[in-house]
Amino acid sequence: MRTTVGIIGAGPAGLLLARLLRNAGIDSVVLESRDRAYVEHRQRAGILEQGTVDVLREAGAGERMDREGLRHDGIELRFARQRHRVDFPALTGGRSVMVYAQTEVCKDLIALQLAEGGPLLFGAEALAVEGADTDGPRVRFRHEGREDVLECDYVVGCDGFWGVARTAIPSELTQVFERTYPFGWLGILADVPPSHDELVYARHDRGFALLSMRSPSVSRLYLQVPEGTDAETWGDQAIWDELERRFETADDWRLERGPITQKSVTPMRSYVHEPMRYGRLFLAGDAAHIVPPTGAKGLNLAVGDVVTFARALIHEREKGSADLLEAYSETCLRRVWQAERFSYDMTGLLHRAPDATGFEDRLQLARLERIASSRAAETDLAQAYTGFPFD
User: In this structure, what is the dihedral angle of CA atoms 158, 159, 161, 163, given to the nearest 10 degrees?
Assistant: First the structure.
C-alpha cells in the first residue's frame, strides 16, 4: 500500500489532518488500532478554542457542531464564596469557545472521511515506523490478522502517548520535560441540566471543582482528589455533597443533582517531547505533549499541530520549499510551551496541594483577586483560554 501521508491514529488530530489534506488534493491513509465504536465513544475533552472552531468550519466539518454545540462567551471563577465572570468577547475582540465533545468531533470527521476521503482502516495496529530519516518512510502494521506495510512520503504520528511513532526517534536526539501532580480529577457524567450556563472553575480549601457540561441536559463535573484515587470508592451522594461544598457561594445559587451515569479518575501531568520532527516523521497531539486538563488545551494543541503540518506540506507543494516542514517542530513548540505554561498556571491557581501552607493559600486568593480586579490580568487569562494563534 502506498500514499503520500501515512497517519497513525484516528483521534481528532489524525482525522482532521486527513480532511485538511483531502481538501488540498493530497492523499493519505489513516491507521487506527481500535474499532470505530471505541473511537466514537471514548470520553475526552469538550472545549474547542476559537481557532479550532474556525478550522473545523473551514474544513467542512462544522455543520453539526454549529447546530448542537454550545457557544460560551465566558467562564466563572469562584473563590472565597465569591463569583467572578470572565467575559471573553469583551476582552479578546470577540473570541469565544465552543462546548462540543471530542467524541462528536470524531463522529463528524469519521463520517466525512468514509464518504469523501482516503482509506481509514480501523483495527489496524501500527507496529513500527521505519526509515523515518529517509525519503521513503514506512509504517509496518497489522490488519485483519496479517502484517502489511504502508509506504509514504511522510508519516504523522497522532497515536497518543503510548503509540509507536515517538519511539522511532533516536533517544540520543530527544529531550523530555515532564511534571506529575499529586492529585487527579474525579469526573462524572450526570443526567441533569447544568447548574450554570457557563463553566465554573472553583478554588476551595477542600480542593478544586469544575462545573462543565456535554449538552443542555447532561452535566460534566469534576473534583480534585488525591493521586491514585479509585473512582468506585466515592458514592454518588458523597460526590454531590462534596461538589456542593466546593461550589458554595454567598448568594442563592444552587447545585442541581441527578443520576450519575459515569465516573472515572483522570491523572494530572505535564509532558513535552522535543523534537516533534525527525526526518519525515512528524509527531502531533499526545504523542508529543500532554497538559493538565485545567486549561482545556489538549485537543486544541493537537489541532494546532496538524494545521501547522498541513500548511507546511501545502506550501511545499505550491512553492517547492520545504522550509516550513523543516521548521515544524520549532513552530509547534512555541505554541505548545505557551499552552503548557497556561495549563500549569491555571492548575496552580485553582488546586490545593496536599502540603499547602496558609501562606500559599493566601497567595492563591491574592492571584484570583488580582484577576477579578485587573482588566490586564483578566485579559491575559481570556486570550490564553480562547486560544493561541496557530501561526
Answer: -140
Which alpha helices (DSSP H) does the chain contain, by range? 12-23, 36-41, 50-58, 63-68, 88-92, 102-116, 236-246, 298-319, 323-326, 328-350, 358-373, 375-386
Whether the CA torsion 338, 344, 348, 349 is positive or negative: it is positive
- The pLDDT tens digits of the residues spanning 140-180 come to 999 999 999 999 999 999 999 999 999 999 999 999 999 99
Convert 223-248 to b/e letters by CB count within 10 Å (16 or more is b): bbbeeebebeebeeeebbebbebbbe
For residue 342, give the 3-state DSSP assignment.
Answer: helix
Helix (H, G, I), strand (E, B) or coil at 160: coil
- Which positions are catalytic? 72, 201, 293, 297, 385
pTM of the model: 0.94
- What tens digit of pLDDT does each residue of 31-43 get? 999 999 999 988 7
Helix/strand/coil for 86:
strand
**Rounded Cα–Cα distance for residues 81 and 76 (Å):** 12
Cell of 77: 471563577
**Which parts of the chain register pLDDT below 50?**
none
